[in-house]
Amino acid sequence: MNKNGAKTLRDYIAIKHGFAFSSDFYADSGNFVLLTPGNFQERGGFRWLNDKQKYFSGEIPEDYVLSTGQMLIAMTEQAPGLLGSTFFVPDDRVYLHNQRLGLITIKDPQRLDAEYLHYFFSSSPIREQISKESAGTKVKHTSPDKLLQISLEVPVYEEQRKVAAVLRTWDEAIELHDALARQLQKQHVALIYQLVFGSLRIGAFASNQKTNKYRWFNLPSDWQCERIDSLAQEVSERNSEGDAAEILSCSKYDGFVRSLDYFKKQVFSSDLTGYKRIHRGDFGFPSNHVEEGSIGLQNLTNIGLVSPIYIVFRFSANKIDNEYAHYVLKTGLYRHIFEISTSASVDRRGSLRWDEFATIPFPVPSLHEQREIVKVLHLSAKRLAALREARSLLERQKRGLMQKLLTGEWRVTV
Q1: Measured at the alpha carbon of residue 174, what is the angle toward residues 192 and 32, in degrees to the nearest 5?
Q2: What's the CATH class of domain 155-203+366-414?
Q3: Nearest 5°: phi and psi at 406?
Q4: CA angle 185, 187, 193 (to 5 degrees)
Q5: Do domains 9-154 and 155-203+366-414 have the same CATH topology?
Q6: Helices of type H across 292-413
Q7: In this predicted model, what pLDDT tens digit does every residue of 322-365 receive, in sequence order?
Q8: What's the pLDDT tens digit per position in 153-170?
């Protein structure tokens, strides 16, 4: 490969520490946006934090007001994969150079292209090197001096620009897939709500337009609204013999997950005799987290074990389709109902027990219509999954391409 002769990043760039802005002046809105490691995407690029975005209302040192297009690098791993990520300052707001972020200045812009450098920092070998050489146990962090010691051998400037342009094409395709996925996700969530509460009916079921009003929702007049305890029963089967089985946890987004896979370590007790058995097809939730949406259908294993704080229950198969029930219970409306019910619970420790959960109303169309609803929602979910898989494929292609282009194994024509 054509090389410029420099051997480390120190020959090309300088890195400046950010300012320690006082938390006394943090604000939820304002004219000055306070950047943090959370503003970096794992693969590189800027992330807006929406309602979690922080602003600053105090006195601001002029040298730490950023300009559009400047490059920042994350020097603290606030979340896995962020250490060494870079982005260019957007032009839509006034941004502040906070501590734990490094401001990169290229010494000779005709010798090193900024976008090429961005992809260099995004490459897996460099991220692994930064992580390996970082300090800290719980939270990894690096320093300008460590970053500047990284070896860098680059092609001529024009080839750098062409390499960056090729990789940018993949980024644009990934961003397009992300935008489509967000739109499809919104449509999917809306479709769930319309179908499971009957504002949208399928085929012959659409002939009935009359509705009945209940506390939480309106339902078609040919549907029932019943308490959960008339449709399901609590199952409290203890693992009294201490049998070995997979330990499961319930997450707010994914439903039931294998505990060791999800947490990457053992967070459950070594004594499993007090744990509850949860069979395939049963539902469960941790009584102190259900208001966050942590409720799910167990479909991972024939018999799993959950913590004693879990409520386990089973719907009657001749009244409720499990997949339909899962869609209902994971809606935003039911998260709200769980939150209200937890607040009203006689258990003042912030838990929702079966006695209170059992009184919650539940929409009940015919079993046939439930299954037709599930078919439509499964098709919608498959469409979304296919788009996410295509996005994942593009990401893998980009990583492979970066490896070839940034090492010079593949060349572009200048």
Answers
A1: 90
A2: mainly alpha
A3: -80, -15
A4: 105
A5: no
A6: 322-329, 332-343, 354-357, 367-406
A7: 999 999 999 999 999 999 998 766 555 568 999 999 999 999 99
A8: 999 999 999 999 999 999
